[in-house]
Amino acid sequence: MLAIAAAFGAWFVASMLTTPRQPATLHGGYLLPTVAASLIAAQSLATIGHRAAATALFSAGILFWLLIGAVLLVRFATGPELPGPLMPTLAIFSAPPAVAGNAWWAIAGPQPNTAHEVLLGTLAALLLPHLFLLRRYAHIPFVIGFWAFTFTTAASATYGVRLLTLTPSAPHTTLGWLVVALATAIIGGIAVRSLALVHLPHRRVKHVQPA
Predict the structure, then answer these.
(1) Are 156 and 127 in contact (CB under 8 A)?
(2) Which residue among 20, 58, 106, 172 is least crowded, i.e. fewest CB within 10 A of its CB?
(3) What predicted TM-score, i.e. pTM, was given to this entire model?
(4) Closest Cα partner for 28 from 107, 104, 133?
């Protein structure tokens, strides 16, 4: 799987370097094949003991985050406006700090350090704007794109709970459970709403002609 992810990521970057595209076609999903794939692979490798390889992939993920993230920010700021069905993909733009934090947790171990402080501050800076976008999200008809929120929610909740365990206390335990409950509610709500998108085939009833 690692080789497949690396090959796909390399092909994706080569495509971006050689194939001009309209700014309107860019969205948060462009972070998945490069940034998310690199950081998740780094976490996986660190978990099974390949720390050096994990650090290399972590560095690649941060590089792609800075490069592609900057391109996306310019696209969002200068327009054109994202179509309604793509608005939920803005959630992916906020995911890299949490995914990077989870990867660094696996690489460096459960201990406080400057990297976690930097990533936590960046995560907060990218998540808080969504509070001002809630009204816009609420006016968008539910589409499959809302599943973008599940990735960011799960990664952010996991990272948040991990950071809270660094300084155990009753308030932090309570806050951790609140984070888990909120993440579960968001992901569960999206799953339930998705059921309405499932179109079950209608049974054809054979009409028997009277003899």
Answers:
(1) yes
(2) 20
(3) 0.86
(4) 133
Contacts (Cβ under 8 Å, ≥6 apart) of 160: 98, 176, 179
d(CA 19, CA 16): 6
d(CA 205, CA 149): 41
Q: Please state which CATH number belongs to domain 2-197.
A: 1.50.10.150
- Domain segments of the chain: what residues? 2-197
> Tens digit of pLDDT for each residue in 110-132?
988 999 999 999 999 999 999 99
Own/partner long-range contacts of 161-164 (Cβ < 8 Å, ≥24 apart):
162/101, 162/102, 162/105, 162/110, 163/101, 163/116, 163/120
Residue with tokens 């969504």: 130
Residue 179 token pair: 């984070």
